[in-house]
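Entry for the shared binder. Reason: the reviewer on the internal report wants the predicted structure included alongside the sequence.
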Amino acid sequence: MIIPRPRELTPRPGTLPVGPDLHLSAGPGAEQAAGLLAEYLGLPDAPTGPGPRLRLELVPDHPATAEQSALGPQGYLLEIRPDGATLSAPAEAGLLSGIQTLRQLLPPEALDPERPLGADGHWPCLTIRDSPRLPWRGFMLDVVRHFFPLSYLLELVDELALLKFNVLQLHLTDDQGWRFEVDGLPRLTEVGAWRTETQVGPPGSGLADNTPHGGYYTRAELQQLVAFAARRGITVVPEIEMPGHVRAALAAYPEYGNHPEHRLPVWTQRGISEDILSVDDKTLAFCRQILDTVVQVFPSRHVHIGGEECPTVQWEQSEAARERARELGLAHPAQLRGWFLGRMQEHLAGHGRRTVCWDETGHAAGEPPAGMVLGAWRDPVHGVLAVGRGHQVVMGPHRSTYLDYPQRDHPHEPHGQPGEIVGLDDVLRFDPLAADLQPGGLPVADPAQDELPGVLGVQGSLWTEYVATPAHARYLLYPRLCGIAEVAWRPGPHDRESLLERAATHRRRVAALLSAGGTHTPRMIGTIEA
């Protein structure tokens, strides 16, 4: 009942009892992973008396043989015997994945953090050699269109870790809101974090809820989230939109727009505002100031700067923008988009970070600068083209990985993005390495290979124009999030019925995780698709 299914699993006779007398030990470098497992299991610091033993240790990876595949930097080897167990891996990332396998091998109810691990708990005896197909296994949550509290983000991280995701991308800014504090720019949250109402009808209907909406995260909250996620092997990648999708920022600081005399409210509509950043030096400095705070709060190797869906009509109408384009030798002001993104890429490189943006293949604004990691969201072929141009790509085509689309054509299905149905079959049919693509940017010891072109990974996305509560979010996630985890971890073909059976068990795990008191309260998590 493991999700994603391990690459190599060999059952053995017997079981290993799991209870408070389990002796957990760690080799050099494995102490933090062992501490996390002890916390998950509710183990005492120093069990006394006889009992089974579980050891975590870091060991060198060995070349693959005809019988066994190499583990790689994120793989692990788990051996469970009646008298004890060993979890070993070449790096901590593998240990953390193995820990999630150990959690999934327990009865779902054992994941309830308030339920002591009793004598009825046990692990089946087996040997698992496992490693992921791709190094970036991500999920993007939009917290702009609807704000989600920190408590939900912490719960989401634990759910993602359980499925062996290792990236949470937070979409923190857009036309409809600004969700984090920036040093020296207080109006971004004082003004930009709040809108007067939210569109509730279809685009162009003019229907709104007449209810103010907003919120933002303090630096301390985001640092808490980053640390909580890192302990579970998840990197939080911030996404800060520019030069488009910036209406909330311009509501706070209109002087950085193309019409500084206009006082704009935070946008209340869906879709894309035509208000974008100007291209003068003071605006570039404004964006650099924002990114300086971003890199202080988020230690991630990658920083996402959006870059997509940037209407250029204001640049075309601006004499200053047209003059900037002429100075740069650009044929059209629309090409300022790539130039703008390049300036931010240079700034982030000065901080030792790699820039990510959404791919806009085939659009008049031109291609993003070389060296950027691209998110292929429109169509898989755009990912193929981007790899051919020398980019690393995170594959997330909307018809396979966008979870804000309805799961089924049913009268009781909640409203979602119009025009598509994305069911579990659509997820499982998706092959991120189709068209003979190869993995790129593998996390290897040689830094020179960090920017090799290829498919860096897979990412699911949940945009929240239609999603206002954690309950609704969870309904949309399951079972499709389980499918994305499977696709990112191992090659197909993927058995739908097997995945549904395992997802039904996983639903019970999530229910157990959410059954504790405090900020964890029971929530609807949807039904498993038949």
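Summary line for the report: The first strand starts at residue 8 and ends at 17.
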